[in-house]
Specification:
The structure holds 2 protein chains of 2 kinds. By secondary structure, chain A is α/β, with parallel strands linked by helices. Chain A contains 10 helices and 10 strands. The chains are: A alpha/beta, B mainly alpha.
Chain lengths: 263, 219
Amino acid sequence: MNKADPILTFEAVHKRYGSVMALDGVNLSIRRGEVVCLIGPSGSGKSTLLRCANALDVLDSGRIVFEGNEVRSSEATVRHVRRRMGMVFQNFELFPHLTVLRNVTIGPTTVLGMRRAAAEGRAMALLSKVGLSEKAAVYPSALSGGQQQRVAIARALAMEPALMLFDEPTSALDPETIGEVLSVMKVLADEGMTMLVVTHEMDFARRVADHVAVFDKGRVIEEGSPKEVFENAMVPRTRDFLSHLGWHGETTIPTAASTREVS
Amino acid sequence: MNFQWSIVWESLPRLLDGAWMTVWLTFATMTLAIPGGLVLALMRLSPVTLISASATAFVEFFRATPLILQIYWIYYVLPAYFDVQLSQLGTALAGLACNIAAFNSETFRSGIVSIRRGQWNAGLALGMAPARVFVSIILPQATMRVLPALASTWVSLFKDTSLVSIISVAELSYVSLQIRAETYRILEVLTAMAALYWLMGYPQAKLVDWVHRRFKVAE
C-alpha cells in the first residue's frame, strides 16, 4: 500500500449527545506514517472523534473508514479495527488489579492468542523502550501519573497497532511528568508510527505534528501544516483560540483587546 | 442458686453436632448464594427488560420479607400449592440461599457499576470481546471492592442460620433448645450456646475486619 494512502478517514461524521451537537460534519484523513494533532477548545468534539474512530462511541451519520473497512459495518470489523488501533486515555486506565507486566501482556495473550512467554518478551522490550522495565512487577498504584501513562502507551503498543490514538495523554499529569510522556510520543513519531493526537500541548503539536486540525463546536475549522496553523492561521477563531491559550498553556485574562473578534 | 455445668459437658457431643450443622449450613448457603447472587446481578444489569424485571422481582421479594416467613413459606406453602416437598434441610438451604443470593446480588451489582466506564473502554480498545472485558477486567475489581460487604453478609448469615431451627433442622440453636427442654437447665444451656456461637463467630468477625483492611481499594 502506498505510504500516502489514507489509513483513516472521517467522512461527514455527525454525533449528537441530547441537544449538543458533539460532531457536526467532520471530514478528516490521516495518512500512513503521519502525526496528526487535533487542537481546539475543551468540549469542541476532539475526544469524541477519537472514541468514534475505534467505535467506543457510535456515530449518528457519516462514515469512518480504517484500512479500507468501514468501522461500524459489523461486530467483526469493530474487533479488527480495535486490534489494529492502539488507544491511550487521558486517565491512563491501567488495570489496577494487574501488575505492570500483565497490563502490557493481557492484550496480546487474550486477543492475539499469544503465548504468555512470548507476550512477556514483547512487553519487557516495550517497557524498557518507555524506560520502565524495572517496574514490571509492581502494580499501577505504585507509579506516578507519568509512569502510568508510559505503561499505558506500552500496553497499546503491545498489540503492534497500525495507528495510535492519544486522547489528551498529558492533561491529567503533573507538569513535571508531562515531559517524559511527550518524549516517548516523540520517539514513536520519529520511528514512523501513525498517530492521531488530541492535545493541548501546542509546543508538541508544533514540533512533532505533520498536520494540525483545529476543532471548534464539532467541526474542523482549519487544518494544515503546523507552520500554517500556528504562524499563519486564516480563520479568526483559530487565532482567537491560540491567543487565549498562549504558547505555554497559561490563559490570559480576557480584556477588551483580546476578546475582540479579529476580522 | 446452684448450677449444674455437668449438663453442658454431658450434652457437648450433641452441641458440637449442632455447631457443625451451623457451620455446614453457612458454607453450603454461601456456596450457592455467591454464584446465585452474581447471576442475579448480571440479570438485573441485562438490557432485556424481561430478564432484568424477573431478577428484580426475585431480589426485592427476598430482601423485603422476613427470612422466617420465607422458610415457613417454602416448607408449608410450596407443598400445598405446588406439590413440591423439600426435606427440612433442603428447605433450610433453599430459603437461606435465596435470601442471601438476593442480598449478594445487590452487593455484586453495586460493585460492578462502581467500576468506571474507562476500564471497559480500555479493555474494548485492546480488541477484547465484552464478555472477556467483564471476566478479566471488571469482575476481579468489582469483587475486590465488595469483598468486605460479602464478608459482613457471611457473618450475618452465620447467625441467621439459627432461624431454620423453626423447621427442626438440628443446628446449634435447635439442639440447644432441645437440651434445655429435656433438662430444664435453662441458664447453663443458653450460656453454653452463647459461648459456642461466640467462639465461632468472633474469629469470623475478626476475619471480616482483616478483609476490610486488606482489600481497601488502591487506585
